[in-house]
Predict the structure of UPF0301 protein DSM3645_23841.
Amino acid sequence: MQSLQGQLLIASPHLPDPNFLRTVVLMVQHDEEGALGLVLTRPTELTMAAMWREIAGEEIADENLVFLGGPVQGPLMAIHSHAPCQEIEILPGVYFSSDKENIEKLVREDHEPKRIFIGYSGWGEQQLEAEMEAGGWLLLPAEAAHVFTTDVERLWKDVTGKIGADIMRSTLHLKGMPTDPTMN
């Protein structure tokens, strides 16, 4: 089995789980025991400042939104670009942290870019593979630009469009294709 770490899981219309309707999940870990990912397309209405005031009783000036990483409850988790706080390097220059000290440092020292998540997406042994085999997920290699985009509303559309264009290029044996084929 090849690890899906560093890949984007894009929910296909065949995925019956409403928790993942039109979502893009960054795969943080994947091995024979299961998988962990974070949804990149579910910002909450909770700001970092409000969350930190509630959790730590401290005032910070960060008005970025906290993201819902998935339906499974867990500790705060972060995806960031600050190497000294890394626990896992997901892809070059993009790191994962869930350790309390690392999260505190990321928030208090205002390291950007970062995303803070409540909840995560988790799959047991062979569960994700079964969902993929059933056509529930599409795959695309992640890029830092996907992870830290400020336009999360467009992310699902953009990555599904890229997958469609890649399929057309390979099926039709094209070397290049315009971003908008109607302009051809």
